[in-house]
Structures are given as structure tokens and as C-alpha cells.
Amino acid sequence: MQIDVGGQPETANGAFRGTTDIAFAPKGRIFISDGYGNARILEYNAEGKKVREWGSAGTGPGQFHLPHAIVVDENNILYVADRENGRIEKFDLDGKFLGEIPNLGRTYSLKLGTHGTLWAGMQPLNEPTGAAGWVVKLDRTSGKILGYVPVTEPKGLHSVEDDGEGQPMTSVGNKIVWFKSH
User: Could you identify which of 11, 78, 83, 133 might form a hypothetical disulfide with 91, taking C-beta atoms 3.0 to 4.6 angstroms apart as the criterion?
Assistant: First the structure.
């Protein structure tokens, strides 16, 4: 199957434009973050038919400044990394805003962790895109930072993964860095 989300703005300089991530929910629901050129979340069904979209450019609830990563947890809560606003917004599967985890860095990537946690790859908002940062472990309910691992190499954090035992890994350039405790 191929889904053409459409609605992509034309760019004169060849800059990025288009979707940034995809998440799957029960009953064949497909969610797409469309952040390069747009500020929206799209939902499609299992047949590839568009169901709805929501979001707009801005800083308010349900608005985005580059939605960059998206995941759905076991409680059907959709987490969206609002990269340039330095936060993670939470929604139900119908697009209703449920809250946010504010005051984070530039958040590139998300991965559900074990025991109600969420991993995020992020860097300081006041540094250039691609600067060094952290892989941060958050409590999904409270947003409290439970721990972090510094990632000192630049051009990383676009993906984050959990090995299933709470050990994070991230991309850095052309390699994967796995942070294992001994």
C-alpha cells in the first residue's frame, strides 16, 4: 500500500517537506506526523483512506512547530514530539488534546519504554539543529524526567530505541550508539 498524504507546500530551495513519522493503533488505524512544511497529524484507516487531520502552526494546545515523531501507547494515547516548541503533546485517538509535557529540548524522536516510560531524543532549543543532546527517560503520566544519557556527538538523536530491558540506543551519524548498564 502507498499513502499519498498530499497538501505539501512547494519549496524553492529544495528543503525538507513531508511526513516525519508514522504510528499504528488498534483496528488498523494509521497516524502520520506531517511536520516538514505542514503542522498536522493525519489519520488513515487500514485501507489507506484518510479519516481526519488536525493541527495547525503555532504554540497553543493542538498546534505544532514541526511535529517530528509520533507513538501510540497501550492506553491509546498518542504522543507527538512537537520538535521546535520543545514539548510532547498528548492526544486521544480522535485528536482530542489531553495535555503536554512542556519545557523540553528540541525533541526529535520518541519510543515507548517499559513500565509507563517514554524515551525521547532531544537537544537544547538554543543550539543549532543537529547539536549534541540527550536521550531522556520520561514518566508518561507526569512528564517527570526519570533519567538521561548525554549524547555528545553531533548529528544524532533522530531515532531512539529501547532494547526491551530499559537500555536506550540512538542514531549518531552513520552508527547506532547503545547505552548499556553493567
Answer: 78
